[in-house]
Specification:
This protein has 691 residues and is mainly alpha-helical. Helix content is 47%, strand content 3%. The chain is elongated.
């Protein structure tokens, strides 16, 4: 017999004289069934054990199983109750030390040893979570063996292949895991199997590497490492891109227009791209040029639609297109700027002929492109009574569609505002109207917007107006940004109309008073007067058009973003970069894509943010800084008034007897210099003492 053979197995069947060969056959049958103890027997069900034993011998399997259950229960009881193994404690009597007044209850007559029991959460408990899990797992395996159907079963081993290898211990029983972790582990096992089965396509690449390369479904590409960095730097921590500016050793204090702030190991424009919080794969998807050197070529690689849309051919059916892109009907209409999402031009704008032409694809300028040469905008046509089809599609438009859909999903911003932003960034760069490529400058503008939005809670419509122009189109019940600023609904006077007529900034034109009131300015030299001066300096032909009013809007609202007055912002910008930076506030421009110089409008915003933050942390102001740098020789108003008060008091006291006494000092009286923007109401003379 094997060494691990239990002697209790010999007691499972009745011993009969002269029939020892039956016991030998029974023992051989147990060894054939790989049974070495009574616990191996009770792992089977009663009927299963009887059927298995009948294949090897003719002994009473039911009686043997019942005896095994009895012996196993007795062994378990002895193991759980140490007192039963102690001869001195076989009987539990009431001793002399017991409470004589205790009633003869079951608890006092038969006290139980609490150490022989375990809690319900213990692994040893028959009703523990671990026991329930094992019973549930065994039950699932039994259910899989039953039932008949026409389709192949999806077994538990296929759904959760790692479940059968799970070690049931205290850690796995009591440690709580997020549902997302369990889902990721399950998906990872299936993805690994898929990659191994298709090693000829993916080679030795990991799951994370493949997810950064795939582009369908539209939730991809997904960069796990980048997402971990973004989440770990969330909250009040400095995020990607902002770290570059914080650790930059080159600060914009040279009073020269240069772009060294934000340079660490790479140029500053790389930091602005990081501010988008988009992964490298996402940025590459938006900026790649799949048309090569000829953007007008209406051709695509054969694998484009399969890679980006999950279909080998262009998708024109509306339902099929929405299913593959994850859009609903309302989102599709918003993407195409159709129906109630069709933008409407403000009634207070008299458009030029060029604007009438450009308004044909307003709201979807990026995906449609310029409508020249008889081209029509993307739309929906009725194919049958129940089907709608996309019409006027081209391969280039399919490419721009998938880029815009992904960008909207990543940013969670309406399509109309995204289209306005992309158009504003391209016009600020000065690119031709037929150029529809999202380039480095577009990503830089997006990064700076997301950074300022987190710090100051600005919206994309305002930022787009700073880049280029105020929007003169509204969607649905929302008025155009131009009307929201200059023609609010509660305005009692006649509306401000843009008729493209010349605007003289040197006169008291009623339009200027309207602009002053709408922007919350004061008709003073350091408020509205300063804006008119800067506009005359850098804007060639001011007129009642959207370009001039957008310039006033930009110069008036940007200082408020940084909690500065118009005069303080003008002085601070001049200290940072001189006249070049002042020009950027009047006529913003973006440099050539991919370069780091000269500094442009986005760099001015980032340097302004640094300067304002430094002034706040240093507990100083722009005027104090200018005096410290000897840029402003005029004394502050409170000091000037104090000197005037001393001068007046001295002049009055000089007439007294005390000052008529002989004195060895010589006093020279001088007429004071008038300080700007102050009233000389305390006196007209000051002194200079010579000893």
């Amino acid at each position: 017999m094997p060494k691990d053979y239990s002697p209790l197995l010999d007691l499972l069947i009745a011993s009969r004289p002269g029939r020892e060969h039956q016991r030998d056959r029974f023992n051989a049958a147990l060894l054939a069934l790989d049974i070495h103890s009574v616990f191996d027997i009770i792992r089977f069900s009663r009927n299963d054990f009887i059927d298995r034993l009948a294949k090897h011998c003719d002994e009473d399997g039911g009686q043997a199983y019942d005896n095994a259950v009895g012996y196993a229960s007795k062994i378990e009881l002895l193991a759980r109750t140490p007192s039963l193994r102690d001869p001195d404690m076989l009987r539990n009597k009431r001793g002399s030390t017991s409470d004589p007044h205790a009633p003869p209850t079951y608890a006092t007559l038969f006290p139980e040893n609490e150490d022989s029991f375990c809690s319900a959460s213990s692994l040893a408990a028959v009703d523990s979570p671990a026991a329930y899990l094992r019973a549930l797992y065994m039950f699932a395996l039994q259910v899989e063996q039953t039932g008949k159907g026409t389709q192949e079963k999806i077994t538990l081993d296929q759904r959760r292949p790692a479940l059968k290898y799970l070690m049931i211990d205290d850690e796995n029983t009591h440690r709580e895991l997020p549902m997302l972790t369990l889902v990721n582990e399950t998906l990872r096992e299936h993805l690994k199997k898929y990659l191994n089965d298709n090693s000829d396509l993916y080679g030795n690449r990991t799951v994370e590497q493949v997810l950064t390369e795939l582009r369908f479904p539209f939730e991809l590409p997904f960069d796990l490492a980048h997402q971990q960095c973004v989440l770990s730097l969330s909250g009040q921590k400095p995020q990607l891109g902002a770290l570059n500016y914080l650790i930059s050793l080159k600060l914009p204090y040279t009073q020269q227009p240069e772009n060294k702030y934000g340079v660490v190991y790479q140029e500053a424009y790389e930091a602005q791209r990081l501010l988008t919080l988009l992964s490298p794969a996402q940025q590459n998807l938006l900026t790649e040029d799949i048309y090569g050197q000829n953007p007008s070529l209406d051709a695509q690689p054969a694998s484009f639609f399969k890679k980006h849309y999950g279909n080998a051919q262009p998708i024109t059916d509306q339902q099929h297109f929405m299913q593959n892109t994850g859009l609903n009907t309302d989102q599709l209409l918003e993407l195409l700027a159709l129906g109630r999402h069709r933008p409407q031009r403000s009634a207070h704008v008299l458009p030029a002929p060029a604007q009438i032409t450009s308004d044909q694809n307003i709201g979807a300028r990026y995906i449609n492109g310029p409508l020249v040469g008889g081209k029509k905008r993307l739309g929906l046509s009725t194919f049958t009574a129940e089907k709608m089809h996309l019409e006027q599609t081209t391969n280039q438009r399919y490419d721009r569609l998938q880029r815009m859909i992904r960008l909207q999903r990543w940013l969670d911003i309406p399509f109309f505002e995204l289209d306005e932003f992309v158009h504003s960034a391209q016009r600020c760069e000065g690119t031709p109207s037929d150029s529809l490529i999202i380039n480095d400058n577009t990503l830089r503008a997006l990064g700076v917007f997301r950074y300022l939005s987190r710090r100051f809670a600005i919206n994309l419509k305002t930022f787009s107006a700073w880049l280029y122009q105020l929007s003169v189109h509204g969607t649905g019940k929302q008025a155009a940004l131009f009307d929201q600023v200059f023609n609010p609904p509660n305005w009692l006077h006649s509306p401000l109309t843009l008729d493209n007529q010349p605007l003289d900034l040197t006169t008291t034109d009623a339009t200027l008073f309207r602009i002053c009131a709408s922007l919350g300015l004061e008709d003073t030299p350091v408020s509205m007067g300063l804006l008119k001066t800067r506009t005359q300096d850098y804007l060639s032909q001011p007129a009642r058009n959207i370009s001039t009013l957008s310039s006033f809007y930009r110069q008036a609202t940007l200082p408020g973003l940084f909690a500065l007055s118009i005069n303080e912002c003008d002085q601070l910008v001049h200290m940072l970069g001189g006249a070049d930076y002042r020009r950027q506030l009047v006529i913003p421009a973006l440099r050539t894509s991919g370069s780091n110089s000269p500094p442009d409008f986005l760099d001015v915003l980032m340097q302004l943010d640094w300067a304002v933050t430094w002034l706040k942390e240093s507990k100083t102001s722009t005027s104090q800084l200018r005096r410290q740098l000897l840029l402003d020789t005029a004394p502050p108003p409170h000091q000037y008034r104090r000197d005037l008060l001393k001068s007046t008091l001295y002049c009055k006291a000089r007439k007294s007897t005390f000052f008529r006494r002989p004195c060895s000092m010589n006093w020279t009286f001088l007429r004071p210099k008038q300080a700007p923007n102050t009233l000389n109401s305390l006196g007209t003379c000051c002194w200079e003492k010579h000893c």
